[in-house]
Design a protein that fits this description.
This protein has about 140 residues and is an alpha/beta fold. The protein contains six helices and five strands. Bound molecules: D-ribose.
Amino acid sequence: MKIGICNDHAGVDFKEKIIRLLKARGIEVVNFGTDTLASVDYPDYAHALASAVESGKVDLGIAICGTGNGMAITLNKHAGIRAGLAWAKEIGALVKAHNNANVLVLPARFIPYRTASLIVRTWLDTPFEGGRHQKRIDKIPCK
Ligand code: RB5
């Protein structure tokens, strides 16, 4: 399992901790984010992660910015991406079980790291339910 992770300046701290969490679970991590607190533009990092997920360079992605919305909006411009914003453990489960999100997005300025870590672990451990949810996912692309 290989996971790509990206972040802007608001997500550096969470990114570093999540990389440690993932590596402790034996997951290979590719870092597409910024590593300093200097102000940057989230689309530059979101597009790099989205391309890596779409091409299969990584299996899944995690994206972090202040609200999560800049990352989610940018990532979801890519046809092969289903990026889901999660701010509670239960949403981390549902965004995989129902939406099969291949990128998890976290709002670093609005949740404590403990919640972020629970969300990441829950999203990883929850299987996609398929069935009626697959039918709905099939209807997402614009015609
Ligand atoms: C950066 O200040 C902030 O705008 C960004 O992290 C994110 O919240 C944008 O959606």
